[in-house]
């Protein structure tokens, strides 16, 4: 009997609990869902005004001295000490002796050949007096001006045919040119500075034996430099010699003014680029310095310049219409490291000034600088 009472009470309790749960669920079925507040991002915008945009080509390279001489020896001899040391960094003025080799032995052979020439001419003087009295005086004058310690003077001009046969038959002309050849070679024992400059490389020292064909060093003019840069072939018809170029040192951020000195006439078949040479002068510059060049190529009419990260892969940019983001197609005409030049963007269009993370077409935004927003858009 007690068992039946307990079961009856539990049954009533279960029915009552189910009734209460059902009423609770029914009461909460029509409760309104919480409203998620809509987030509107604030963005920087700009009002498009198409203008003429100059295209600037960025390039870089290392400076090389425009005037450079590699020193080689054409003769053999002992390197003699000069008035200045033959060391890197040593400065020389135009005409000063860079290198002097011992030429005493060779100098003696030159003097011997000059003496033989003098004797050969002196030997024919009696015959000239008898057979060619009209030319005797000019040859006598030549002998009187002949100085073994100076450069051999040019032979008198031979005017008559008989005189030519007579002089040539005595070996005078061949002896003269033999002497001049020896004198030319004697001059190669001394190498002088072709311009005011500085020695950048020295491969020999005083007292060492220098052999024919041996490289001795390098000599440059440190006042004028050139930089070789590679430019896309598409700019081959717009770059001109003499155009100003702004050069920037990446180390100290200094600017230097240069100009286009030469443009290669051929295009590199591998890279499809042309080589442009930029000339620059400044006392702070050194050979081997790395500089960045900014070349003015051409001007693009009715275009704008924006950050590259504003251009989408689909060649579109975001615009703002009625506080919503939208996209329009554009035509990029030139890319630089950070900027891109665009065409086909109507004047008055409101575009982003800085990229917006997570942006999409239809996104609600708020312009930060509302003063630039046209009334029609507001």
Describe this structure as you would to a colleague.
InterPro entries: MdtA-like_BSH. This is Multidrug efflux pump subunit AcrA (Membrane-fusion protein). GO terms for molecular function: efflux transmembrane transporter activity. The chain folds into five domains: 31 residues; 83 residues, conserved putative lor/sdh protein from methanococcus maripaludis s2 fold (Beta Barrel); 88 residues, Elongation Factor Tu (Ef-tu), domain 3 (Beta Barrel); 57 residues, OB fold (Dihydrolipoamide Acetyltransferase, E2P); 83 residues, no CATH class. The C terminus is likely disordered. The longest helix has 28 residues. The two termini are 84 Å apart. The protein has a six-stranded antiparallel β-barrel. Strands 4-11-9-6 form a four-stranded antiparallel beta sheet, with no helix packed on it. A hairpin with a 5-residue loop joins strand 14 and strand 15. It has 378 residues and is of the alpha+beta class. Helix content is 24%, strand content 36%. Helix 2 runs antiparallel to helix 3 and helix 2 runs antiparallel to helix 5.
